[in-house]
Write a structure and sequence with these properties.
Layout: E1 5-14, E2 17-23, E3 28-31, H1 38-45, E4 51-55, H2 62-71, H3 89-98, E5 107-108, H4 109-115, H5 122-130, E6 143-144, H6 157-170
Parallel strand pairs: 1-4, 5-6
Antiparallel strand pairs: 1-2, 2-3
């Protein structure tokens, strides 16, 4: 049986939107979509009932501070640890590959599948990207369809457009 893990959570306010996040003592574990809730994040984690949740107290965490800097176009790279608390080995490999897509650049699902050594697993790669628990930080918004169309995005296409616009304006 896996050990219990303590998760701290915080809701970041940016413009008219909120962004929930969760972290452990080892690193950032989850960033939700704009205006999603802590409850939806908890539902995703609590499927295996080993998480102990605690609200963040005090000033903004380093995670919140850097996310806000990114959203304001003042940060191109995050300088904090991340942890994958869930996900298959394949999903985690895809998420690590996403981290290699530079700020202001885009890739496509086929290229990511190739990067993880599974060039024929384009649909599985897309599915893994859709399950990315670290929206923005693990930059799934930088992955487009091969045709250049936006493709999907778990946070909605409006959020994907906004993140790509931030990066194109500030790169």
């Amino acid at each position: 049986m896996a050990k219990d893990i303590h998760l701290f959570y915080q809701v970041v306010q940016w413009q008219e939107m909120t962004l929930p996040l969760a972290y452990t003592s080892e690193g950032l574990a989850c960033v939700g979509s704009f205006n999603s809730t802590i409850e939806s994040m908890r539902a995703w984690f609590d499927s295996d009932n080993r998480w102990h949740w605690q609200a963040h107290q005090g000033r903004d965490s380093v995670y919140a501070t850097q996310l806000l800097e990114y959203l304001e176009g003042k940060r191109h790279k995050f300088e904090f640890p991340i942890v994958f608390l869930k996900g298959t080995a394949f999903q985690q490999a895809v998420w690590r590959a996403l981290c290699e897509i530079s700020y202001g650049e885009t890739s496509n699902y086929s290229a990511v599948a190739q990067k993880v050594g599974r060039p024929r697993a384009v649909r599985a790669t897309g599915s893994a990207i859709g399950k990315n628990p670290l929206t923005i930080v693990v930059p799934c918004h930088r992955v487009l369809a091969k045709s250049g169309a936006l493709g999907g995005f778990s946070g909605g296409l409006a959020m994907k457009r906004l993140l790509l616009a931030i990066e194109s304006t500030h790169s």
